[in-house]
Amino acid sequence: MPTVVLMDVSLSMTRPVSLDGSEEFQRKNLAVHGLNMLFEHMASNYRMEFTALMAFSSLWELLVPFTRDYNALQEALGNLEDYDKTCVESALNGVSNVVQQEWGSACPCQVVLVTDGSLGIGKGSLRHSLHTLKHHGDDKKFPLPFPFPTKLFIMSVANAEELQMTDAMDNLEELLRLSGGDGQIFTMEGPLCMKNVQAMFGRLIDHAYSPFHAVLHCGNLSSDVQVFPRPEPIVMDEEVEPMPRSVNTDLEIVGFIEIADISSPPVISRHLVLPINVNKEVDEVGTGATDELEEEPSASQMAGKSPNFCVLLHGSLKVEGMVALVQLGPEWYGMLYSQADSKKKSNLMMSLFEPGPDPLPWLGKITHLGPISEAAENPYGEDDSKSPFPLQPPVKRSYAQNVTVWIKASGLQTDVQKILRNARKLPDKTQTFYKELNRLRKAALAFGFWELLKGMADLLERECTLLPDSAHPDAAFQLSHAAQQLKLASTGDSQYAAFDHNIAPMHTDFSS
Amino acid sequence: MKMFSVSHKTVFVVDHCPYMAESSRQQVECDVLTKSRGQGVIPLAPVSKSLWTCAVECSMEYCRILYDVYPLHKLINYIVSDSEFHILNSWRQEDQSTHELMSALAAVGPPNPREDPECCSILHGLVAAVESLCKITELQHERRTTLMDTAERVANRGRIICLTNAKSDTHVRMLEDCIQETILEQNKLAAGSDRLMAIQQCDLVLIHIHPQGDDALVSDRPKKEISPLLTSEVHSVRAGRHLATKLNILVQQHFDLASTTITNIPMKEEQHANTSANYDVELLHHRDAHLEFFKSGDLHMAGTSTRENGLKETITLKWCTPRTNSIELHYCTGAYRISPTDVNSRPSSCLTNFLLNGRSVLLEQPRKSGSKVISHMLSSHGGEIFLHVLNSNRSTLEDPPSISEGCGGRVTDYRITDFGEFMRENRLMPVSESSHDPSGKLPVERAKGQLERHTRYWPMIISQTTIFNMQAVVPLANLIVKETLSEEDVLTCQKTVYNLVDMERKNDPLPISTVGSRGKGPKRDEQYRIMWNELETLVKTHAGATDRHQRVLDCIIACRSKPPEEEERKKRGRKREEREDKTEKNGSKDTDDKSWQESERLKGLLDKEEQESEVIKDSPDSPEPLNKKPRLCTEEVQPPERAKGPVSLLTMWSNRITVANSRKHQEFVGRVSSVNNKFELYQQLKDENGMDVHENGKASR
């Protein structure tokens, strides 16, 4: 889930913070200190996160486009300049553009808005934006809610009392509500100082940037892993099940399925599964990718040398072309597979299915997947030539069962012509003739379209009179028999008009 | 969409009163004469559908689309109303199919124009519809049962679609009032019943059908709230094509559907088989398949077109001729069932048949810039066609560290192939819900159980294991993980053990890894000791499962300590090593062994059971005290053998095999005259040296 840090660089951020000590700080310094702390945390624990840094006042500027280079982000923080007044609305428009350009509109995003709670004055101020919300034209809509799922974190370099003295807190709360309600407003607790700003960003880190650690189990084999990005709790149906579901920290493999059988299933999110070494203080994630220094046999190198189940699983999944079905919680499943990023690099990935007992119709209920050893005969065949998947639905879909639809005249004409074509080729086409005839008869009865039955009977009788002299004598018998049966059905007489009844070919014997 | 939204329950109420037998006055020419046959033939007069036929076929089309897209949990109850009401099906899942409904409709037949119009009314049906909405569905019942104390979260909402020919706007208001009253009445009844639920919301969609050319007596009216429980909307439509279009739009609105037109489908011409033209096919599906377009505002940019009366929009996606069937795991963010708008047209059935035959088609999103973006895929799974939404945006997970750079990434001798084999054995299969397992466990729990058994001892790297690198151990390793063993399985396991014993006697080399150790690695007997330990570890993890598993363990423990000569040889071997007497190993061993062999011979080789007892006598020599207890166990398992004294399965088995084999062929001289399956070669050399070796062979007797 990419992060956009939106930093307020308006003049109000340069307000000095009164301190007892000799050095004088600005609110900006506090904010930068907090962000540095966030970036440091991400660099070591949340390395895979893409982060962009934007500064805004009455205008906005993308200082660092989405990157995992946290040094660059920190460097940019050091070079912030001061500008004019705060204008949140235009800045949010900027966020919307920047995110959609990079990630499209489906990718969930986190926005960290850092401000001092002085939200501008006059036109362009947040108060003004919110007041005129309803008067916005369709072309100039307020940027919230963003088209992409958003978590909005507002870091205010001011304490709650200060925000409540004006309507700043109300406005920020309204902003959060407009963004969809997912997020939080963080304020400083106690006096404005380095320690308290650290505490505030610490709360943000705990809330949104703590790595998700889990244990991947396959029977008695297991491995400690970090799942990145963190799987977020989700609500499926707020009415029936209002409590959000979260992914267990024990991920249990239940069995294996061929890639062809699982066949590109829909997933709600994808995550990297990175094996970690829990004995160490610092997490392992990503260090391998960037630490090419290798001065001494570091702990990470030692970890690299002891066998890890994830690596074994990944290797075999890749070679065999299979996925592992993994249970994430009660009635919630996902799959593990090898994902190749390039020819050389590949990784263990986990995709989450929609929560529920049967996320993929072609697999059926997951709880009703059992080991193949229970079958009398291997359902995959001795040479893997077969598969028990996909599961067939009990009722065929309309496009798989030759349904009759006469809404367009052409549909009806085609069906009538088909019968007539076969009528001319009697007795060779007796079977097809009666099959088509019965299909038409059934539909006409269901639709209460008795006029058609009579019309069809007339047509068959006419065909009978048009038979050439060379025609087989059976043709005339079958045509008049069929016509007569249709006429009987068109009276609605229950004896002849039963839906399940079929007109059978007349039994004739011309063999002699 | 909420599970129990208004669209969970839909009641169709179709008017079956005499005036519905009137003609729609839309004529269908069904006798299309070809030119060659045109002469002298009077074509059949065109037929015309009645208002009833139009209502029925359009409502069936609504149901067809609904069942295609939502085979479960979106239910239809079909009611026909004349002098009384006729309920054609129930909310039960097995009643939810167009075939069921067609069959029931055929039984009703068209309205009888001679029936007294005074007795007939659509009201009978509408009252029945409200009653029906109060009836609990299987899904509501199931969810209420599982939610227990929060059962009130299960809502009861529904929609009534009434197809009728109303007399006037006042008539419509009368119908609305009547439904409102019935809801209130039924809700009171429902409060006191388990099988009924009060209606929380009911949407009435009243469709007034009139013949072509007639003025509509009823005016259209958008949705309005009659009461907090009831909303109502009125559509006045001409019968025929217009009605079909109206219901098609309604089914899309009611069930959040959207339309996609697949364009540029190459298809062989019927007349000219060697040419192909491009066709378009329109599909309906859940509108979330277009989510990305809606959100990004691309809807109008990306090939959308508004058609007919401006109510319907479709998104155009271009067919990409499929490559060879490569099996690939696409990153797919959604999969939605489809239903073709024009199901039996030739282009539609060509497309659906192509997909049903197992091919997948990628679909390209037309973009102004000309860049090619694959955004969707059509694919069938088990006879159902799905529109998959593929992710076409930049991935946030790009350029991750390779797995080889993380924990365990530097290890190179993972048992990849073995684990692959393990995965194949632990593949899953669907188990029918009706099949009952005596353990009472769900199939998936049994699958997990199997994984647990199979991994009790599973070294991850080749250099950590000996037994899994030995072909000879495979039969036992495959069997021991089973939940239960048959008598035959036990025999196979024992056979495997004897085979290992044999290998040890023959001093066969073992595939012990020399990684990490200097020189040649451990000595051979040390290798065997490691192998036996590992095998014992494997089997011990399963020994508790059943008596038969325990017997396999017993066999291993017994065999690795015997025959005693092995142990003795080992001991002596070690002593010899201490004495640094490394030369002439075989020779000295042979002489050392002689005394034992002699005593063995004295006791008689013919009676193997006797020999067995001899082995028992020898057993105290072996260092493992474990020996004794398993013996007892074996005895308990086989009480009949007790009279004869302790007899191991080895004896029984080898006796049987020996007897069986000896019947089949003439025994090799060497084997016949061997001692403990050993026969000394080049005896004549010793003879020349003046040593007496005759005792070694039977022939000397």
Automatic annotation (TrEMBL), chain A:
Protein name: Integrator complex subunit 14
Domain Integrator complex subunit 14 C-terminal: start-end pairs: 404-511
Any single Gene Ontology cellular-component annotation: integrator complex
Cellular compartments annotated: Nucleus
The entry's keywords: Magnesium, Metal-binding, Nucleus
VWFA domain location: 3-117
One Pfam entry name: IntS14_b-barrel
GO biological process: snRNA 3'-end processing
GO function term, MF aspect, one: metal ion binding
Gene behind the chain: ints14
Record-stated family: Belongs to the Integrator subunit 14 family.
Source organism superkingdom: Eukaryota
UniProt domain Integrator complex subunit 14 beta-barrel: residue ranges: 209-356
Assembly with partners or alone: Component of the Integrator complex, composed of core subunits INTS1, INTS2, INTS3, INTS4, INTS5, INTS6, INTS7, INTS8, INTS9/RC74, INTS10, INTS11/CPSF3L, INTS12, INTS13, INTS14 and INTS15. The core complex associates with protein phosphatase 2A subunits PPP2CA and PPP2R1A, to form the Integrator-PP2A (INTAC) complex. INTS14 is part of the tail subcomplex, composed of INTS10, INTS13, INTS14 and INTS15.
From TrEMBL, chain B:
Entry keyword annotation includes Cell division: yes
Subcellular localization: Cytoplasm; Nucleus
Alphabetized UniProt keyword annotations: Cell cycle, Cell division, Cytoplasm, Mitosis, Nucleus
InterPro entries associated with the record: Cell_cycle_regulator_Mat89Bb
GO terms for cellular component: cytoplasm; integrator complex
Chain positions covered by the region annotation Disordered: 564-645
Residue ranges, compositional bias (Basic and acidic residues): 564-620
GO biological process: cell division; centrosome localization; regulation of mitotic cell cycle
PANTHER family: INTEGRATOR COMPLEX SUBUNIT 13, SARCOMA ANTIGEN NY-SAR-95-RELATED
Family statement: Belongs to the Integrator subunit 13 family.
Protein's UniProt name: Integrator complex subunit 13
Species of provenance: Sander lucioperca (Pike-perch)
The encoding gene: ints13
